[in-house]
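Sanity check

After download, print the first record. It should look like this:
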Amino acid sequence: MSWISSVAVRKTLFAGLLAACLTVIAGSAEAEPPLVGDMVKFVPSAGDRTAPDIPFISATGEPIKLDSYRGKTILLNFWATWCAPCVKELPALDRLSAELGSDRFAVLLVSIDRGGARVFEPFLEKLGIHNLASAADQKAALLRAFKAPGLPTSFLIAPDGTVKGRLVGDAAWDSAAAKDLINYYASN
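Expected structure tokens:
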């Protein structure tokens, strides 16, 4: 084989290898959730971790578990009335719930306020939050089980109960980017 044909073979092999790599990269890009805007703070889970099923208290005072939400995609948001970034994002969460809330998707607020519903219900009413109810995690047991590093922290949970990822800090949850992210996980 001459030197020229050897170079041509190498170029052909390199071009084929490059095309294969680009195909893999393009395929994996489609396999990744869309992360733009505030959603760049979303960190997908590394594995299929099931959401902890620690009981917490509904707004009506009944104990509930995340297991009761199986079959729905859940945006679980830990918050408190004294947390300024939490309060900042509540209206966006309320609008998201009004637009996407259904038998397939729900926004679930969980307050860690020690006073429970007697503290957060009038607070939400005063803010004009009408499309969401909050539950209580007064001893922060669920928050600790999720290993949330601070407030607010939101977890996206698939219908099968697996945690798909988390976002620490406030976000524009009613944005097109947030809806795209939620729809990505709701359809996968």
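If your output differs, re-run the checksum step. Summary of this record's structure: The radius of gyration is 22 Å.
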